[in-house]
Fold these 2 entries.
Entry 1:
Amino acid sequence: MRGRILVVEDDREFGALLETGLRAAGFDVRWTDEAEPAREAALRESFDAVVTDIHLRGASGLDLCAELNRARPELPILIVTGFGNMESAIAAIRAGAYDFITKPLELEVLVGAVDRAVQHHSLGVEVRRLRAGAPVTGDWGGMIGSSPVMRRMFEQLERVADTEAPILITGESGTGKELVARAVHAHSRRAPGAFVPLNCAAMPEALLESELFGHARGAFTDAKAERTGLFVQASGGTLFLDEVGEFAMTLQPKLLRALQERRVRPVGGTAEVPFDARLISATNRDLEFEAETGRFREDLYFRLNVIRIEVPPLRERGDDILLIAQRMIDQIAARDGRSVRGLGVAAAERLIEYPWPGNVRELQNCIERAVALADHDLLLVEDLPERIRRSSAHLKPASPTAVGGPGSPMLSMEEVERRHILTVLNEVGGNKSLAARILGLDRRTLYRKLETYGH
């Protein structure tokens, strides 16, 4: 089932139509034609969303909405009415409705709106669970995630961690490839040994050769003493070559020989030195394509790519984003002595919808900033960076809602609220204090909303 829905509709023909349509779409539906039984059911039983007509026999759907919103603020309520005008929309907003849909409605529109409401409810439950410090399911070597892609990666890592085979970790920049490498090392029989990382893109060719293979005394200017290379330093442990796709072509034959022979010759040296290190490398480049086009040695690629681990981008990890964000909030708040304890639901929705081109590294930046700026115990939308607040993903309408009658634009509840607030502000000549009183908002809330709108 996609969710459990309470339908409140006193028109029996229309109520039966809603029940049948939502059931056909995969929802578990309970239908009642009176407000009081609906109120009792919503308070007593577990529902993921409520769909109610604005006009009920002897009662108001808006009153029912307001009462349920006070008692069960996490429960999304959708108002359905045949009177599509601005006054009805604003009344629904003030009653705490999640969405507002006008008759005649298409079943596909209703199903889409209900599905989004259920997802919103599910997200709210997850956010509250995380804030309460619920145990994390899916934790491997300090990496957390319950999404299918992460579970598959954890299973693969579990199988290969204790082998000696070279591993190539691939994935976009910022996905945490070094964290994966460190976790593999920690789960291997080499865990007591050293984990030695090297960023191949951060060094010029001559220095990279000396760092990896070592050098003899007098091998070059300033080589006043013999130096042991990282291959030998990592003996008994793991050598991690980050950004291995940037490894200089002129040095690739020497790296290949070292991996084949398990011996290295220091720069300026005459004797080879054995080593016993497992190699894990990482890249955000397509090394197979690089090898095919001659920009990376094919034989070296096959030597590195014995086992390949693909780290999924953050945008493919679903609710893992919230799991990671909550852990970051806990750590940063504890470090900086802040009282922030979690995410608000609206902010959580923004994080889920944003595509995260910078992956986990960008999320870390976002949460650091938000915790530093927050002046309340939950992170709100206005605490997030502007690029996330204004991401095109969250600007799409929540549902096609007609406001103002035939010919009106199809607007989301968020857009209806935005337009109304800006209209009132314009009518009072920009006086925010007066506008806040008219709107029934406190000034702080109005200022936050206006900041979100860019005013």
Entry 2:
Amino acid sequence: MENSAYTDEFNGNELDSEKWYDHHPRWKGRPPAKFMPENVSMKDGFLRLTNGMLPETQGDFTMGGAAVVSKTAEAFYGYYECRMKASSISMSSTFWMSNRGKEIPGIGRISQELDIQETIGGAKKNKRFRTRMNSNTHVWHNQESISEGNHAELSPATDEAFHVYGCWWENATTVHFYCNGKYVGTVHPSTRYSATPFDSPMHINMVTETYNWETPPTPEEINDPAINTTLIDWVRAYTLVPAEG
């Protein structure tokens, strides 16, 4: 059954403000790129996350990235997918889920992160980030994470063609990943802090950002409209329900 709260074809002229933030409500971005609402737009049936230099430096920020985040954090067990084409600069193009976590007695606050696709279409240091579906699960504790991930090779590269990236979040300990409708791997999040590490709802994120382990784009690259935009055709969500009969 379709989960309409996290499904959007992006066919209009403006982002659906009832479903999505055009920024991240709790995170400015990772320097040197700051999430800028004006870098989020819709045109020709695509959600466009465009990057560019800031007109003026803002503290540690010199570049502008983009983030679209669901306004509700009730995405739970089910299937989530998006059709995306990465930019061709050394900033990410991502589709992922996360939450603020919860307190576990005797342990502290534990939060979840489910990275369905985390690619860099113009990767400079790790070129394989351009030609793989890079999926991951993070169990966060005291700002440190325990990660269990999966990688799937794909062609053409993520900035050369659209691909469909999906995951079936089956239960609290199991996540299956799919690329272009084909199964590519299963991950079991770490159970170090909890026997059921992925047992809380999350919100959806579609983000383009800089990394501290990747060389940022040059001003010429990030301002080039031919390569500086991530395109998302649609995002869809489904909930598993018993079949009639």
